[in-house]
Amino acid sequence: MDAIDRRIIATLQRDGRMSMTDLANAVGLSPTPCARRVARLEGDHVIRGYTARIDQKALGLPVSVFIWVELETQSKEAIDTFERAIRGFDRVMECHLMTGSRDILMRVVAADLADFDRFLEERLMRVPGIRSVRSSFALRSMVERAALPTM
């Protein structure tokens, strides 16, 4: 990956809807070589897709909850079982396997406290192999970035 690839990535992170002509102009290429580079970055899975960033409050999901999950065992089977289960939960926006005393950190969105309680009781706590769950509610977001640094 060279400096032009990094400029393409940085530009697309700011505006993934721009035309190939506009992208090529922004990074100093003609459209055909630019399109080839974008296709290569997509084929190499550097660019994994294009999405719209949506305000979660506008969709009626203003609450963000960070949940620490401790599993009964940290075996590959237990982690795989947990991962398969939570992949089906659309309220889970992020889920990370962590080091330390707690195994999993998740970010979940909810409409309100009652909605989160339903998610907890009807979905998360029914996943086999959970030893404990601790949650913290985000009061406000101080930094949110979708764009990665391109160095």
TrEMBL record:
Pfam family, any one: HTH_AsnC-type
Xref: SMART domains: HTH_ASNC
Keyword annotations: DNA-binding, Transcription, Transcription regulation
InterPro entries for this protein: AsnC-type_HTH_dom (IPR000485), Dimeric_a/b-barrel (IPR011008), Tscrpt_reg_AsnC-like (IPR019888), Tscrpt_reg_AsnC/Lrp_C (IPR019887), WH-like_DNA-bd_sf (IPR036388), WH_DNA-bd_sf (IPR036390)
Domain HTH asnC-type residues, every copy: 1-62
PANTHER family: LEUCINE-RESPONSIVE REGULATORY PROTEIN, TRANSCRIPTIONAL REGULATOR AZLB
Stated name of the protein: Lrp/AsnC family transcriptional regulator
Species of the source: Albidovulum marisflavi
